[in-house]
């Protein structure tokens, strides 16, 4: 599939809440508004309520500029259906007016600042919304020296310019078909929303970045945009705000945190995340759902719940996930086969026998209930770490913090699990960028000895290597 076609198909939704109060942004808005006004005058059209036009123009410029500079996909999907701009749903509180927004986009297209692809269909698919993206002309206009935005980028970073305006819903209730369900607020939903506000405010206060080389960045883009990647991802580094999603129309199923860009990058890149210019550490609950189930039965789990000798450990983890999420054995076996697990039935039987004390939970769709349990634990862990002053990034049952906070994170994760479930948690550190660096240094030292000193040292080479390892 051509790259442009892929980008058009996977374009994220236009973000109506993008905003910036920087005076440098205001200069850009005023300059382009002047061109819009001249264009309308030439067409004998009046500009009514200039302040509202400028507000809509600012939102469009900020989101398209952010898409071009901070996202792997410069296109944004936008509706030209007037009914989509009506209030009434907690999930779609659009704070822009159809007439102003579409008028601004038409003007920007006419001025050559925006490229527009009108609603269209791909073969064998339903119709797609119109796509828009910033042209090079617009990027050059925004970053023209006369406006001063480049100076802000150099002094405070590109992300500092882009923010959000207006309240967006952060608590989502979905039915079994993943369709949003309207609901009345309860004490729980109100508390969850307030806690998310605390968490999101802390996330906004930090600098969350990905420190990788140009080649690693190119490899990441290629991986994300590859058709062969089964988990197609859209990444926008301005997405640092979380929301929670509950499932099956139930407040006791799901509830996990989503929305952070770090959740969408391949896991091997997470070790390169920096928080406030510092290296990070990722710590996760090992065998989390199995340990929760054993704890609910008042039992201690095996030290390693994936210790079957005849099976690959990673495949055991995937199989258990399928066995907990499927509603019957046959569906679990089909899901395991899709994941490339051979001998799925034999493995399922072996895992059922290995975990006999909790086998009644297998093939019952228990996974969403377990997600609710881990989301409640995650919420408390994050709130307590915020009290310690830490920005932290959740990835479901693991957490990324600046490395200076790793001991406090370990303490809190253990305390929260034990207090809620009455059993001890088992935690696991993921490899960090610093670990990788030291491994490279070790390898470099070994290669130096092997290639350059072996002949010189002769029979003493083995002793030298031993002393070298002690010194390191």
The percentage of residues in β strands lies in 5-15%
**Whole-Å distance between the termini?**
50 Å
Number of beta strands: 16
Number of domains: 3
Multimer state: single chain
Q: Could you report the average pLDDT, rounded to the nearest whole number?
A: 86
Number of separate helices: 16
Alpha-beta classification: alpha+beta
Main beta sheet: 6 strands, antiparallel
Give unreliable regions as ranges. Answer: 453-462, 464-468
Which value, in Å, is the CA radius of gyration? 26 Å
Helix content: 40-55%
What is the molecular shape? globular
Explain what the structure shows.
The chain is α+β, with helices and mostly antiparallel strands and about 475 residues long. It folds into three domains: about 1-165, Arc Repressor Mutant, subunit A (Orthogonal Bundle), CATH 1.10.10; about 170-305 and about 355-430, no CATH class; about 440-470, no CATH class. It is built from 16 helices and 16 strands. The strands form five sheets. Strands 9, 12, 13, 14, 15 and 16 form a six-stranded antiparallel sheet that branches. A hairpin with a 2-residue loop joins β14 and β15 (about 400). α7 crosses α13 (about 365-385) and α9 crosses α13 (about 365-385).
